[in-house]
Known about the structure:
CATH superfamily: Cysteine proteinases
CATH topology: Cathepsin B, Chain A
Helix content: 10-25%
CATH class: Alpha Beta
Number of helices: 6
Structural class: alpha+beta
Strand content: 15-25%
Amino acid sequence: MKTTAYSWDEVAQSNEDLPAVVDWRNMDGINYLSWNKNQHIPQYCGSCWAQGSTSAIADRFNILNGGLATSPVGLDAQTIVNCQAGGSCDGGNPTLVYKYAHNTGIPHSSCEQYTAYNLQGRMCTDIDICRDCTWPPPAEGETGMENCTAVEYEKYYISEHYAVAGIEKMKAELYKNGPISCGIHATDLFETTYVGITEGQGNYIYSEKVLFPMINHEISVIGYGTDATTGEQYWIGRNSWGTYWGDYGFFYMAMEGNNLGINTNCLAGTPTYTKPKREEETFTQ
């Protein structure tokens, strides 16, 4: 269960005014984000549930570490897929990634190459979590796995994980603690037509009317802002469809109104390098 105060309660109790802009790509000149990813390379893989969640958790470790002056933290989405810690390339549940991070810990992204592929014919073992391989390189058509061994690795945990929903709670959480992962209803129009457009033109903020949004895609929200010309508020989102999509992989979504359900289903976790007591609950509300 959650043992610390919620960010929105802290803001309310202190009568603290939230800033007009929160953008973890540039907080007082410092970038705290891990790198952007493409879940569909080298082949199509429905791993958004693993990508959006591990990105948000990794970003919070970078905040914990004070920025990217040292090697930035990225967390291994392929390990999450290999161990079916919530799903597979056929889709999954991001909540269970947070549970895995709490109970088991996630390795650094250098542990497993992202292959966009489910394990075949076996369950996840140590070599599917973190491994290293030696000479010689495999012949064409061979995996070379006979020259690979499991290795010890640092584990990135979260001490607690919890749901976040609604504009005020999301803004307080982003300001106080960092990026969150959120579900959206990703439509064909959103996927194929969104591009980043210069601020001030008013149409770079995405809005699409969907009568009953059904969450089918996980992204991370890394901040919020207000258009200087129109005054419209927006969320700054990060997708996992490559940097050639949108604004180098980012997008700007309307904070209110027709926003594909982005305000309704978000998750957050508190990063720690210390293994927490095992928590059987999926998350606390």
